[in-house]
Amino acid sequence: MSVEAKRLAVLCAHLNPTRLFSDPHSSQISGSLCSALLDAQNHNSHEDCIFCKIIRGQSPAFKLYEDDMCLCILDTNPLSHGHSLVIPKSHFPSLDVTPPSVVAAMCSKVPFISNAIMKATGCNSFNMLINNGEAAGQVIYHTHIHIIPRKALDCLWASESLLRRPLNFDDQKVSQLAAHIQKQLLPSNDICQDSKNENYCSSKS
To answer: Is 144 a catalytic residue?
Structure first.
């Protein structure tokens, strides 16, 4: 299965099914800037990473913003008019191995960039989205943030019409889940996470 086909299949779970299959151009709807030549299993490679090529000036892109830490470009397969991506200039394959300082630099630019995008597109809302990992729809293994402009009744996400089940505070499984997550957030686990990031950075130096 090609990268584009794989991404489209994942997005079928999020996008409005009626829109997706009734639109003759629906094959153009894809969640992120993709290359059919990219091997989705080669998560740690930055030589063939399309985002790294854009950063190095080896692939074309419409650049909206750039500083020492990150770059913002228009997604070439947008979900909405003005769909953009905020990308760190250093290569990190997923959010969980991206240093907090880099994540902070990316996120700090979202209000500034999103306001400009909304004004330019006539929107008053946007989704900020990160696909982290294959099951979540990540295809390009270089951390990036989606800024997706929204308008009322655009029916972009089918999940917005789903009925959500309220959290049962008396459910033992819920309290066990909360306790398990809290345990993973203890300082000892933070140290392990920092070591994970340092080991990844060291392997790339």
So the answer is: yes
